[in-house]
Model the fold of this input.
Amino acid sequence: MDKKMIDGGKQNSRGEQTEAAKEYPLEGLVKTDGMVCEALAAYLPAKKQGEFTVEDLANIPDEQRVELIDGVIFEMEAPYTIHQTIELEIFARLRAFIMEKGGKCVPFAAPVDVQLDCDNKTMLQPDVMVICDREKNNGKRIYGAPDFIAEVLSKSTRKKDLLIKTVKYENAGVRECWMIDPDKKQILVYDFEREGYPVIYGFDDEIPVRIFEGECKINFREIHDYLKEIYGV
Done:
């Protein structure tokens, strides 16, 4: 298919938010009016959304997955099985390539915490990532920006992932980011080092991984065929 360029709702070249990002500001994605949900409130200090820190997450049980973005806590639903299948297929292909080449980069699959901005206001859990600076892995979490991130979109995370996290990833220094949409069967590839807009691929494409100079390619036709075999989609 032809590769298309679109405005993904990021900041523009002057560092300003685009109209799409303004339409869904961070506070507009919080589920409650300035407060976290009742299920989480019991584990957190009495603060408003926007005031929470990484340290405040310590008492939240592991089974209640959350992300922290600029002091705002977002609940995370357990991924659907199709979501997890895509995630693990990408992880497996990245790992196989790195091992074959004897590379120093390390792939990870969620849940792994990423202290993205090296501050105490943001902690994310990307679906798949690659770290090439091993010193960022402190054995507990990733401290700093991964080189590569892939997120598999769902209805509950679509706006947050497309309009908030892509901006966070770019500003933190992530080199490449994929947003994978199983419903539309599309992959938005952001090459933050070279291009200002994402390139759209389909589930029938072979997609080059740009942090590896395109030498590694993820064959989404193979992944799609596997999904059809398992899920009939």
Q: What stands out?
A: The first strand starts at residue 4 and ends at 5. The first helix runs from residue 19 to 23. Residues 1-33 have pLDDT under 50 and may be disordered. The CA atoms of residues 155 and 183 lie 9 Å apart.
